Amino acid sequence: MNISAIVPVWNGRELLERLLASLAAQTEPAAELLVVDNGSHDGAPELARERGARVIAMGRNAGFAAAVNRGIREARGQWIAVLNNDVELAPDYFQTLRAAMEVGTQAAWFATGKILSAAHPATIDATFDALCRGGAAWRVGSGRADGCIFSTARTISSPPWTAALFRADLFRRVGLLEETFESYLEDVDFGLRCAAQKIAGRYVPAALAWHRGSATLGRWHPETVRLMARNQLLLIARHYPGRLLLGWLWPVLAAHSLWGAVAFRHGAGLAWLHGKWQGLCGFSDARRGFQQFDSELLEQLLRENERTILEIQRATGFDAYWKLYFLLTGGGAK
What we know:
Strand content: 15-25%
Shape: globular
């Protein structure tokens, strides 16, 4: 297996050192390591060179999407691994993902493993992404205790790009990440584009990784909230046909207003308002990039996503956000 591993970095030398050590220990190691530097000033690029990586300098903080796209364009492998700099991999991570992608009658195009919290290893950080009708995404299981419900392999349409493996040919079929998103939800946008072409992947819980999570800025940093709030609207603009946009107006309003309330509770309300204003201002331009998505296929996908969210929330205990969303919209039941 010929893997090109792509790691976008913006500082975080100590985190990168742990990742590079886990890459060196892989039972099926990457043949090529590309570290794409978004303007680090703490020695992270120098460390990467010392460990044998090819460092690609972006010259500025161009965002996650642009950095990953640059790496994909320059990668030579038949397989592409995209890794956050604050993740550590079990030694058999690549080997386990690749083997799972070949199981069954139809090979999977991508795969991701069970990603646990580095600070609390018995807690889920990420499994796969699910998007509700309202245009809010849940990194399924995030913050929940690990358990049987997260230990079953399944077909997925949207992997978190924290530690994912892709067939290189996928990017020739679907394209690269949408760079206007900069960071956050660009992976969900990519998953929707895959689903529109009926391209699927695998969640492989036997492959383990550990993620520090939001190590660069922090989950409720104003810049994180601004980008999330803006990109939620851009995601809808790019993918929701007019029929569904109008028909799901109430779930959209509910999902975004509830998320705004959570942002205000964390002291990031102004950043949320700023992001929503930017999203509204950019809505028309994003709409011009509308992906031709069969409305019936999208409706089926998002209703299935809602059922998954509801099922796992019920089994593991409701977050206040999702409890209120389902109460207000009646989602997930039909």
